[in-house]
Structure formats: C-alpha cells, structure tokens
Amino acid sequence: MERFAQTNADITQIETIGHTAEGRAIRAVFVTNTDHPDQNKEIVLIVFGRHGDELGTRTVGLQLLEWLASPEARDVLINQQVIVVPVANPDGCATQTFGLPANRLSTLEKESIIKFGLSIVPDLVLDVHSVGKGKYGYNWGGLEAVIIDETARSGEDPYILHTLADQMIQGAAQKGYPFLLHTAEFYRNLKNKAATLTDGAFNNHVNQVFYDAFHSLTFGMEVNHFVLNPQEAAESGVAAIAALLEAGNAVYPWEYYAGYPNRIIIGDFQASIRPRGETAAIRRSSRLEIWAQRHIFGSIAPYRKMENDHSLDLEFAFHGARPLQGGLTVGTRLRGQPRIKRIEANGTIPTYAAATDVCSTHLFIDFETIEPDIHNKIYVEF
Ligand SMILES: [Zn+2]
User: Fold this and answer.
1) pLDDT at residue 187 above 90?
2) For every residue of the chain, which 3-state class applies, written as one string?
3) Which is more confident, 199 or 290?
4) Is the pLDDT of residue 199 over 80?
5) Residue 251 and residue 273: Cα distance in Å, rounded?
6) What is the Å distance from ligand 1's center to 250 Cα?
7) Nearest to 243 by CA among 76, 55, 376
8) Domain ranges of the chain
9) How many angstroms is it from 128 CA to the middle of ligand 1?
10) How far is 198 from 321, CA to CA, in rounded Å?
11) What is the pLDDT of residue 193?
12) pLDDT tens digits, residue range 291-336?
C-alpha cells in the first residue's frame, strides 16, 4: 500500500481511519486525478478484508489500486474519487481468522469503516469478500458472485441495481470468470429457521448503514480463494469492479447528469422526486436532504395523471417542519420524442432539462426550494 502511494503520489493519498485492538492501523487509500475539481466527482468506497480468513478479498484491493493507476482508469479518476480500504480487519488478516461477528457490525467496524464512510457520503459502496472450501461448513464449489443486498426497495432501485450488476458480471465474464448474481435468501431462511443470525444476514451490514444514511448504491461481492490462486482471485475481482467503476462515468438513459444512478429517491421512471444541482457535490447534499425526509412526502409522490394524450399533470406535497433548502427536481417520462409546448410549475415557467432515450423523453423540472404543506403542481403540454 505504501509502495503504491509513493510510486503514484500524484494520484494517491493515504489516511488512517482507525486502529485495531492489537494496535494495527486501518488505512484508506484515496485515488483520484487531482487536476480535476472534487465537486464534480462521484465518491466511491470499496471495502476489502473485513473477514480475516477470506484470503481472496485482500488480494483484490491491492490489484485494484494498480488498475486505478493504469491508463485504463483514466476517465474513472477524472470523474470519481475512489477510496479503497484494502484490509478492513488487519488483526484478523494477520492471524487468518474470521475475526468479526458474522451477524452484526463489530465495535471496530463502527469506529473505523462506518464512522469514516459516514463522513465521506459515498455514492457507491462495495463490500468485497471471498469464499473457499468449508466456509460455515459448506463447500461453495468455486463460487464467485455479485450480491444485491435486500436493502434497496426505493424507487427503481431493484431495476437499477440489476442493470449495474449485469455490467459487473459481463466485465468478469470477458476476463474468463463466471460470476453469478447471488441472493441473500438462503441466509434469510437460516435466520428464520434457527434464529442463528440476528439481523441483516450475509455480508450486507456495511451496505445497510450507507443505504439507510445516504441512498448509496451498494453491492456485495464474493471472489474465490480455493479453486482460484491469489492472482486469479485478484484478477477476477478487479474485472468486475472495473466494469462497475467505468459504468459510473456514463449518463444513464433516465438521468440528465453522468454518474452513479442513485438519484430516484421517490417514485419511478414515470414520475420521480430527485435531488437538484449542477455539480455532483450539490446533488449529493440535495440527495441527503430529500432522502432523510422521504417519508414525509404525500403517499404517491409525485402523483401523475393524464387527462388526454398530449398533456400531463404532476402533483406532490412535502410535509417537513422547514422548507427543503436544496429544492428538488421532478422527473417524468413521455413516450417518443414529442415537441414540448409548455411546462408550468406552480403557475410559473420553471427551469427544466430534457434527455431522450431509445423510446422516450425524460423531463427534469427544477424547484429551487420547497415550502412545507404546499400543493405543488406541474403541467406539461406536448
Ligand atoms: Zn466475508
């Protein structure tokens, strides 16, 4: 880690984010292109080695740093601040023992990874593990997997997460590693049957915290340290992660701005409440403000109705104690690419943007602030 930071001092910074019971430092490696301003960057947190006997995961972190320093990652470093924690549990790593509770977060994790992650507000979080022969008494037979946690049920999150997971799986496939999309169902069944696991199950505890706090996109991953040698485990993990990081440079069809598609807070592709802002940093703080208060919008927000085939109405109300300082953006989608004749928001002409995909037009209508308990109305004629 230190050798990497010395060799790549122009793109790297190391921060100590905690110490273990035995006094080992837990370190985070920040990698980005410092010629480009941070306010335009997505923030990514990738955690390896929480479980000390999972030898495969610790090889991936260091290999990922090498990839980030390669020409292939040029655009990723321009658009993103990537923060890698190569070994989250150095004591477990040193003794090659699991070293942390399987069914909840340890104090160590709360004081290091969680505290640190809450301070950086990640857009994307990856929690990378590995399996071998005999994990929990099961032989996983060479399994490598991307895992979608059971955390994500807002907006179009299940669709969005599957879309991104597919890109990770395709990225690994192109390097010769057959990943699957794993489910946490097995672990939930275990919990239901035997009450052996008390909460969350599987490896999603870190992810749960960041989803709940920030609506971060989160994935678990398993590489394999039994049928794969360390170099193969590293290569397979980097293949899947690199594909995801490259996906974070793209503009998704249902978004106006580039970056990780974590911005549908309420609603769906047809009608949604989203963060507002022209930079990644402003959108991030707007996302936090709306996400924290998502439960105090009206029951269907925004409610969309069409009285005919050339206009639509959208309505929503926000019931917070104070106005939404960052405002919000309302998204809506029209079939085809009709000419937009008129848009009104609460009786005035709003700022709006439009983007088209293969079959539709997405409109993004800005509200600079939102006052509590106002019946907000949008009218679109096309
Ligand atoms: Zn694990």
Assistant:
1) no
2) CHHHHHHCCCCEEEEEEEECCCCCEEEEEEECCCCCCHHHCEEEEEEECCCCCCHHHHHHHHHHHHHHCCHHHHHHHHHEEEEEECCCCHHHHHHCCCCCCCCCCCHHHHHHHHHHHHHHCCCEEEEEEEECEEECCEECCCCCEEECCCCCCCCCHHHHHHHHHHHHHHHHHHCCCCCEEECCHHHHHHHHHHCCCCCCCCCCHHHHHHHHHHCCEEEEEEEECCCCCHHHHHHHHHHHHHHHHHHCCCCCCCCCCCCCCCCCCEECCCEEEECCCCCHHHHHHHHHHHHHCHHHECCCCCEEEEEECCEEEEEECECCCCCECCCEEEEEEEECCCCCCEEEECCECCCEEEEECCCEEEEEEEECCECCCCCEEEEEEC
3) 290
4) no
5) 18
6) 30
7) 76
8) 2-247, 266-381
9) 8
10) 35
11) 59
12) 999 999 987 889 999 999 999 999 999 999 999 999 999 999 999 9
In this prediction the pTM is 0.94
Considering the segment(s) 266-381 as one domain, its CATH architecture is Sandwich (2.60)
d(CA 81, CA 12): 10
CA of 203 to the centre of ligand 1 (A): 6
222 CA from centroid of ligand 1 (Å): 8
Q: Which fold has domain 2-247?
A: Aminopeptidase (3.40.630)
pLDDT in tens, 256-267: 999 999 999 999
Measure 129 CA to ligand 1 centroid, in angstroms: 5
Distance (Å) from CA 79 to ligand 1 centroid: 30
Instruction: Find the 344 Cα to ligand 1 centroid distance in Å.
Output: 52
Quick one: tokens of 37?
A: 């301003």
Distance CA 323, CA 370 (A): 5
